[in-house]
Design a protein that fits this description.
Chain A is mostly helical. Chain A has helices at residues 10-40, 45-65, 73-82, 96-106. Chain A has one domain. In chain A, 68% of the residues lie in helices and 0% in strands.
C-alpha cells in the first residue's frame, strides 16, 4: 500500500504502516475463518448466494477501510483497536496527540 | 421456478421442468465442489477476492441460464446436455421436433 500521511514523520509513518498491515492480515484471517465456517454448511444454492453476498459486503468494507492514505487514519486505527484487530501498543512511537486521539476514539 | 412455455403441452412442461431442476441441482453441486476446492487453498486476501470474483461470475451465469421462461429453452437444454449437466433421456416425452433440435444444437 502507498504511504502518504502528510504531517507524519518518517518513523511515525513506518510504525503506522506496520500496525496497519498487521491489522489487515488479522482482518483477512478472520474473514477466511468465517468463509470456512460458511463453506462447511454449503449444501444449497441459497447458501452459495449468501456466501457471495457476504464476500461482496466484506470486500467493500475491507477495501474501504484499509486505505492507508485516508485522512481519517486515526479514526481507522481507533476502530481497529475497538474491534480487537489492533493493540494500542502497536502504535507506540506515534506522537502523544495522535495516540491520545486513537485511545479516546476507540472507546466510543 | 415459474412455468410459462407457450406452445408446450402440460406433460411436456412437466418433463422440461423436472429436467431443468435436475440440471440446476447438478450445476449447483458442481459449483459447491469448486468453491470447496478454492477454500482449501484460501490463505491470502488475493485468494479471497478471487473466490468472490468467481462467485460473482458463476451467479451471473447460472441465474441467467436457469430461467425456465426463456424463449430459448431448447438452446439452454442443448447447452446443458453438451456440458454433461443433463442427459437427452431426461427429456423423453417432448415432441420429436423439440428433441431433434436439442440433439442437433448440443453437437455444436
Amino acid at each position: 500500500m502507498e504511504m502518504k500521511l502528510s504531517g507524519w514523520s518518517e518513523p511515525e509513518q513506518a510504525i503506522a504502516k506496520t500496525a496497519f498491515d498487521s491489522a489487515y492480515q488479522r482482518a483477512i484471517g478472520a474473514l477466511i475463518a468465517a468463509v470456512r465456517t460458511q463453506v462447511d454448511d454449503l449444501t444449497s444454492a441459497d447458501a452459495v448466494w449468501q456466501l457471495h453476498d457476504f464476500l461482496s459486503i466484506q470486500r467493500h468494507v475491507i477495501e474501504g477501510r484499509f486505505d492507508f492514505r485516508s485522512d481519517g487514519i486515526l479514526f481507522v486505527f481507533a476502530s481497529l483497536v475497538k474491534e480487537g484487530l489492533l493493540q494500542v501498543d502497536e502504535l507506540a512511537g506515534l506522537d502523544e496527540e495522535k495516540l491520545t486521539k486513537v485511545k479516546a476514539m476507540s472507546r466510543f
